[in-house]
Amino acid sequence: MMDTHRGFSLVELMVASVISLFLALGLFTMFSMSQTNVTTTSQLGQLQENGRIALALMERDISQLGFMGDITGTDLIVGSNTTLVGVPPAVFNDCVGAGANNATFPGNISAHFRKLWGYENGVSANSLACLNGVKARTDVIQIKRLIGPSVVNPSDAGRFYMATTSNEAIIFQGTGAPPVLASGRYWEYQHHIYFIADNAEGIPELRRKTLSATGLGNDEQLVEGIENMRIMYGFDNDGDDAADSYMPVQNVTTLMWDNALFQRLVSLRIFLLVRSTEEDDSYTNDVTYTLGDKTIAATNDHFRRKVVSTTIVLENPVLIRN
Fold it and tell me: Residue 320: inside a domain, yes or no?
């Protein structure tokens, strides 16, 4: 009996091979596209979340700028309404900004005590010598305020405190018994500086210096991927506590920093350029970004970026009464 079973011909094998090749190529393309979409979605989510966290941290802090407990709104004058008890005249690792009275604590100087000050690194004439590695052409901002709520037992030796009434303030370190101030309340005193620097891996990050018993020698690493910061200062020129114009730090005058003669800064607009922490070789960034009045040219690298911003209305716009 004749055997009728036969295998594939050479032509059939070649056709099957070509079809398999196309199927494999299609599957590879779908897998590659899926991987790209996952990377894109992940990085965009990371940009949004890092930007949100950075703005939230700064907004919660800066919105209370100038809060000085019961004496809020009155200039702190050492020897008149303010006393320093056990506080060294020159704080170790202090960050002293521009102006006659712009150290961590008010000095015995006939000048307004600055609770707000800033500059653009590498552009402004003045800077803070205490900072290291600040990225060029990024803004730096320092603020001073009390941390609420008031405390019953100000005894943390690593902190500084202020006892306040409506017309008197005593600044002291949390060692030993706190000073007695009739009808006064105790608050933690804080000096913060926000700036941008690269970490050990070369990733830019938002950092903050925080006052402790050792001065401002520590850097808190807050959020990775914050590549640039621009701050626009809201100026009130008609006394209604609302910003009539916004200006870059270079245009802020001495009177505005001191809130003297009703030259008041009442709000801030903060712009952050957020960068992904890892490159994506399938993406080339040719986008130009705008941060307030500043333009960041396209880098043509493989990092995704996003601009986030917020407007912070200062809770205490009238920082100095007279």
Answer: no
Find the domain containing 83 and state its range. 12-313
pLDDT in tens, 6-50: 666 767 667 767 777 777 776 666 655 555 567 788 889 999 999
Question: Is 322 domain-assigned?
Answer: no
Pairwise CA distance, residues 167 & 81, whole Å: 6
Place of tokens 């803070």: 128
Q: Which helix (H) or strand (E) holds 33?
A: helix 10-62
Q: Is residue 229 in some structural domain?
A: yes
Q: Where are the beta strands (DSSP E) in the chain?
A: 82-85, 116-120, 139-151, 160-164, 169-173, 185-198, 204-210, 219-224, 226-236, 245-247, 264-275, 289-291, 294-296, 305-313
Q: How many CB atoms lie within 10 A of CB 69?
A: 20
How many CB atoms lie under 10 A from the CB of residue 10?
A: 7
Closest Cα partner for 254 from 142, 116, 60? 116
Domain count, the chain: 1
In order of 3, 52, 101, 252, the CA distances from 125 in angstroms are 98, 31, 17, 13
Per-residue pLDDT tens over the stretch 123-151? 999 999 999 999 999 999 999 999 999 99
Residue at 3 is within a domain: no
